[in-house]
Protein: Universal stress protein
Organism: Halomarina ordinaria
Amino acid sequence: MRHVLVPFDGSEPAERALDHVAAQFPDARVTLLTVIDPSAGFATGAGTPGTAEVWYESVRERAETNLAEARAEAEARGLRVDTVVETGRPAATIVDYAEKHGAESIVMGSHGRRGVSRLLLGSVAESVVRRSSVPVTVVP
């Protein structure tokens, strides 16, 4: 495997996905991708004039911090890592990024939503599995 995409949000499931890549694909180039979903800002009241920009900058700063920490830890384990922050609908952005940048595999964590929560909130991992043209490994 030459290029693995790991959607990364700083959560424990995302950390486990990165651990899986380190164990299974130690020689691969790894891209850690954080996707900022702009619709999440509206749910927090960021639709108020001026608030959306503040929300976005705060979320982007947190994403870049999480990615920098994950990159340092992964590089200490010998991985070659790139980090990227994109904005868009998470599943579509992950699939599009993989296709446009030649990722041979996507390895991602699952937040393990079940039952009504899964039906109401959907599952990014499930959507990526259905839409991706490259293999997807979901790490629980």
In short: The CA atoms of residues 26 and 98 lie 19 Å apart. The first helix runs from residue 12 to 24. Confidence is low (pLDDT under 50) at residues 117-122. The two ends are 21 Å apart (CA to CA).
